[in-house]
Amino acid sequence: MPEFREMAKVTLFGSGNKGGAKFTPAKDIPSLADKVVLITGAAGDLGRQTAIELAKYGRPARIYVADLPRGDVEKKAVIERITREAYEQEKDATTPRTEVRFLDLDLTSFDSVRACAAEFVAKEERLDILFLNAGIIRVAKGTTKEGYEVHFGLNYLGHALLAKLLIPTLEKTAPAASKPRVVVVSSEGHAMAPKGGIQFDNLKGECAAMDYSQRYGQSKLALIHLTRHLSTLHPSLTTAAVHPGRILTGMADALKKESLLVKLTAPIAPFFCVPVSVGIINHLWAATSPDVVSGSYYEPVGVPGKESALARDEALGKRLVEWTEEQVKDVKPLA
Ligand SMILES: NC(=O)c1ccc[n+]([C@@H]2O[C@H](COP(=O)([O-])OP(=O)(O)OC[C@H]3O[C@@H](n4cnc5c(N)ncnc54)[C@H](OP(=O)(O)O)[C@@H]3O)[C@@H](O)[C@H]2O)c1
């Protein structure tokens, strides 16, 4: 029953995409010529569409799709789909196009996160926009390779480590005209975190006493704190956390397989959801708008101040930073 109550609260009374800034990709994405972008989870719906719109309108030099390892044929298919959808309507093939590349990344493994960052810095001198977008919501309990609760380990800790490893490259890029950005994809679901926000004593393990919405919620709450922390520690960067809205994506499909409640409510879900093309507007706004205030959390589109009290709790944020540093202290920095 708590599962139903929390899900219904977010589904029926969540903020959705209800206004805020007007942002039209074709008009508002500036030129990203020569820039380099990395998007985690860009084989999935929101990440892929973000890559398509950026390639189509901003045309950065390269976009890296960092996602779960797969065969060469599947990787090629991801790259070709983004390229095709970005440029299929274009008659003038002389305008420079974005090159899309695939990077293996399994956020449930410190080794994989480090290898992904190492591969990236071996290839690139700069990073202009980093999207920490990949994410899961799962009913089934589980842990990551290092033994952390799987939502927390993947959605938060894997991304916190990736950001830490890539910060030197982002900072190196900072003298450029516009500040490099880190867009952290959180969720209005951060409000479903358990009492106290983050149960530090249970993060090693399955957090078995929590329902999945609380496990997801605490990981997304932690991402808002990560955004603020990165902003404070690295003023040469612009960081923003976003909730994309409610969108029927691969995440919902995965949940349908595991949750009877989600399966039963599937027929009415479209009434509460927006299409993927709308669901990525907050991503794009946060990555390019001059109005972004670093360290903030935004609901769609560009609406600040909607985070929970726990997301503003400075003592919780400080404890999270200390806890995180302790967990990743043995991961070797990149040479
Ligand atoms: N859809 C919504 O209504 C909604 C609402 C609020 C927030 N969000 C957030 O938006 C983000 C994007 O989600 P989406 O809706 O686009 O879902 P999606 O279509 O399922 O995309 C998620 C992506 O993350 C990848 N991923 C899963 N496990 C991974 C791992 N261990 N390492 C690296 N990548 C991994 C997935 O890869 P595979 O496809 O290969 O599994 C997929 O490409 C998530 O952070 C989600 O929490 C979504």
Give the CATH superfamily.
Answer: NAD(P)-binding Rossmann-like Domain
Number of helices: 12
**Chain-averaged pLDDT:** 93
The helix-and-strand class reads alpha/beta
In summary, what is this structure?
Keywords: NADP, Oxidoreductase. Helices cover 44% and strands 11% of the residues. The chain has 335 residues and is of the alpha/beta class.
Give the arrangement of secondary structure elements:
Blueprint: H1 2-13, H2 25-28, E1 36-40, H3 45-58, E2 62-67, H4 72-87, E3 99-104, H5 110-123, E4 129-132, H6 150-173, E5 181-185, H7 212-233, E6 238-242, H8 250-258, H9 260-265, H10 276-279, H11 281-288, E7 296-299, E8 303-304, H12 314-328
Parallel strand pairs: 1-2, 1-4, 2-3, 4-5, 5-6, 6-7
Antiparallel strand pairs: 7-8
NADP nicotinamide-adenine-dinucleotide phosphate is lined by residues 40-41, 43-47, 67-68, 105-108, 133-136, 154, 185, 187, 243-244, 246-247, 249-251.
